[in-house]
Amino acid sequence: MTRAISLHDVSKAYTRGARVVDRLSLDITPAEFLVLLGPSGCGKSTVLRMIAGLEEIDEGELLLDGEYANDLPPSGRDMAMVFQNFALYPNMTSRANIGFPLRIEAPDTDPRPRVDATARLLGIEDLLDRLPGQLSGGERQRVAMGRAIARHPSAFLMDEPLSNLDAKLRTHLRAEITQLTQELGVTTVYVTHDQAEAMSLGDRVAVLRGGVLQQVDSPRAVYALPRNVFVAAFVGTPRINLLRGLVRAPLDGAMTISLGKQFLRLPEPLSLDHQLLRVQQGREVIVGLRSEAVRIAKHSAARPGEVPLTGLVEHVEFQGHEILVHFDTGSSPAVVPELEAPRPRPGSPARRRRRDGSVLTRLRERSAAGRAGPVVTLDHPEAAVPEAAEVRLPGDLIVRTTPDLALRHGMQVPLLVDLAHLFVFDQHGDRICPHPDRLPDLGE
Ligand SMILES: Nc1ncnc2c1ncn2[C@@H]1O[C@H](COP(=O)(O)OP(=O)(O)OP(=O)(O)O)[C@@H](O)[C@H]1O
Ligand SMILES: [Mg+2]
């Protein structure tokens, strides 16, 4: 048996007046794998705990299979929770840990067959006689998962279950969780702040910001049609480039988006997407360029739909299979406040210190940058437009390329922007293009 979980306008405040979850509505269908994604403190765990019955709901309704469940005690909800810090009983073997909830539920039934079946499913038969102290982190997490599964609950609630593990193990267990939950066909709500994890696990991803749901969609739709600049910036690596632009749509000439001293010229006839930009004439917008939207045009001509831009190499980041080139295009980055500290300006003390590059210096630098300006916040664009000279931050565009290109600091490099991959957001950060009609499979 698997559950439908619905939240209708659910709110929660721990202290009066400060809502940490704000009118959240979500319909999770039976057997769905839904990921709650968002930065630290955005209310993910609180939502999960309200679903589990561990936290009271202040306003709104929780429905389980269509039945009002706000006041149902946790034991009556038939859900199993898996936490980040594998809460195993240290003095019990894996077998006893996995069997524990079964013994509570049905004291007269021998838990062994269920425990053995669960252990087989998770490939931990060899670990059943060990104590948690004799297991590695990954093994402990499997046992914790086993304890949740053995009961055959009607829903799993997982709160960052993999975040204490190293990267390799995390990827491995991620694949296991996907397979396991598909096999069991149990509704799963999975909390993480790791966008890569969310994208690879979820049937749908619900993005939260400050307790407010921003978007809930398939991973593909969240990536290709982010509702706003926050979602666009939260999802995808390397992070989407966000530049401040100005739309110019003269009656007698081509429409352009200025990016500082350069501009993107939109080809005639205007595409459906670009027609939507007409009403933005004379207004500031935020241009979003993911790494697939820009390429270095050293040895190749523009393809249809590509327009030129020039960048000054600021910094080259070697990644092995690729390099990330940080360009200065003379435009100003738009900053999403929760997601990053602003980069220091050239010549500032923070910037000069970067040369010695120690971790401590960089940390210090980051916290100094967090205090000093300029920050272009999106919520108050008009209040945060400093003098033109001040907003010239270096390395405003990061482009991914193959490692064989020899690029050095200070080189002037021709770039091509693929307008088919152009994102534009309005002053409030809401997406203007692409229009969903252009990506009908992902339509909103
Ligand atoms: N018991 C509590 N009392 C008061 N405030 C709380 C309590 N629990 C959480 N909060 C606050 O509520 C907000 C949301 O917390 P929550 O734990 O849901 O965030 P989260 O998204 O899970 O963050 P993280 O990714 O860091 O785990 C935070 O600002 C947190 O400080
Ligand atoms: Mg949490």
From TrEMBL:
One of its GO terms (cellular component) is ATP-binding cassette (ABC) transporter complex, substrate-binding subunit-containing. It comes from the Bacteria. Keywords: ATP-binding, Nucleotide-binding, Transport. GO terms for molecular function: ABC-type transporter activity; ATP binding; ATP hydrolysis activity. Residues 335-358 are annotated as: Disordered. InterPro entries: AAA+_ATPase, ABC_transporter-like_ATP-bd, ABC_transporter-like_CS, ABC_transpr_MalK/UgpC-like, Mo/tungstate-bd_C_term_dom, NA-bd_OB-fold, P-loop_NTPase, Transp-assoc_OB_typ2. Residues 5-235 form the ABC transporter domain. Pfam families: ABC_tran, TOBE_2. SMART domains: AAA (SM00382). This is 2-aminoethylphosphonate ABC transport system, ATP-binding component PhnT.
